[in-house]
Design goal:
This is Ferritin-like domain-containing protein. The chain is mostly helical. The chain has nine helices and two strands; from the N terminus they run αααααααββαα. The protein has one domain: Up-down Bundle (Ferritin), CATH 1.20.1260.10.
C-alpha cells in the first residue's frame, strides 16, 4: 500500500498541497490541531460477519496502519540518533538504545498482526527528520543537534501517546484494543523518560510544550489545557479545595484525532 495514498484516504483530505513546499507546510505546524511487552493478538477477521462488524474491523485496520506509520517514524528516528554520534551522554544513549528496541518490537508486531489478518501493512515511507531543513538533529557539526534530537524525541513520543489514545474508539469491540493499550502505556513511559532527560516534568501541564521545544511543535500539545472531563469541570473537584488549572490538566491526557496525527507525521515524510 502506498503510504501517501493511505494517509490521504485516512484523513479524507489532501494534507499536502502540491504547490506548497514542505518548508512552508512546516511553517504552519503550530496552526494545526494535533508502544515493548505485548500479549499475542488473535487477529481473527472471520469473527466479524455482518456489515457493521466489517466496518468496525475496517476502522480497526486503519487505526493499526496509522499506528504502524508512527512506529516506523520512531523506529528510524532512534536508529539514526544512535548512529549519528550526537549523543555524548552514555546514560542517554542507554535510554535511546532501549527505546529503539521497543520501537522495533512494535513495528514487527504490527506488521505480523496485519499480515496475519490478511491485510497488507502500509509501506515504510522515506523520512526527512530535518522537516525540509527546519532541523538538523544528526549533524555532529551542528551545536544545536543534541537539543534538537531530544526535542524531536519528546514531540514524537508525546504524539504517539495521544494518537494511540485517539484510536481507541476505532478498536473497541475488536481483539486489537488490549495490545494497542499495552503499546500506548509503553509510549507514555518513553515520553516521560525523554521529558525527564530534558529536565521537565514527566507529564504535560496545560497545553505547554515545555522549555526548549521549538514553537512549531505546539501542534503536539494543543488541546491539553482541557479541564472538562465527562462533562465535569475537574477544577471544581477536590477535597477541601478545588484543583487548580495545572493539576486539572496534568491529571488527564487528551487524544489526537487521526487527522491531527497524520498532519504531524506528514511533515517528516518525503512525498
Amino acid at each position: 500500500m502506498n503510504l501517501i495514498k493511505f494517509l490521504d484516504e485516512f484523513s479524507n483530505e489532501n494534507l499536502v498541497n502540491g504547490t506548497s513546499s514542505r518548508r512552508e507546510i512546516f511553517g504552519t505546524f503550530s496552526s494545526l490541531g494535533k508502544k515493548a511487552a505485548l500479549a499475542a493478538i488473535p487477529f481473527g477477521l472471520s469473527t466479524f460477519a455482518n456489515k457493521a462488524q466489517a466496518q468496525s474491523m475496517d476502522n480497526a485496520v486503519n487505526a493499526l496502519q496509522l499506528a504502524l506509520t508512527l512506529e516506523y517514524l520512531e523506529d528510524e528516528f532512534y536508529d539514526l540518533a544512535l548512529q549519528s554520534g550526537v549523543i555524548s551522554d552514555s546514560n542517554v544513549e542507554t535510554v535511546y538504545m532501549q527505546i529503539s528496541q521497543h520501537e522495533q518490537a512494535h513495528v514487527d508486531f504490527l506488521i505480523a498482526g496485519l499480515e496475519g489478518a490478511g491485510v497488507t501493512p502500509v509501506e515504510k515511507p522515506t523520512f526527512d527528520f530535518t522537516a525540509g531543513g527546519a532541523f538538523d538533529p544528526f549533524n555532529t557539526s551542528n551545536p544545536a543537534a543534541y537539543a534538537q534530537l531530544l526535542a524531536l524525541a519528546q514531540a514524537f513520543e508525546d504524539t504517539g501517546v495521544r494518537a494511540y489514545k485517539g484510536q481507541a474508539s476505532n478498536l473497541m469491540g475488536t481483539d486489537f484494543l488490549t495490545p494497542a493499550l499495552q503499546i500506548h502505556s509503553v509510549e507514555a513511559r518513553h515520553a516521560s523518560e525523554i521529558r525527564r532527560i530534558r529536565g521537565l516534568k514527566g507529564w504535560i501541564t496545560n497545553a505547554e510544550r515545555g522549555d526548549g521545544m521549538p514553537e512549531a511543535t505546539q501542534a503536539v500539545y494543543n488541546g491539553e489545557d482541557n479541564i472538562t472531563q465527562g462533562g465535569v469541570d475537574v477544577t471544581s473537584l477536590g477535597s477541601g479545595s478545588p484543583f487548580g488549572m495545572e493539576a486539572a490538566t496534568e491529571a488527564y491526557d487528551e487524544i489526537l484525532t487521526g487527522n491531527e496525527a497524520v498532519n504531524i507525521a506528514s511533515l517528516f515524510i518525503v512525498s
